[in-house]
Amino acid sequence: MKKKLYMAVETDEYELPLYVADTSRELADWSGLSIGYVLITISHCYSGKKAGIKFLRVNVEWEN
Length: 64
Hints:
By secondary structure, the protein is α+β, with helices and mostly antiparallel strands.
């Protein structure tokens, strides 16, 4: 089964996870930033230095 997860991570070299969500909307609500900003930063691979948070989309696959 394949699924996409959305993550907010720290902007340092370790990129430790701050929050994991099922949808980009949930991630935007948690961060207080707009959904458009979250999606743009994900699609353009922004570093997140300006907002202090980097956003990622991660594809995961597992068996039931």
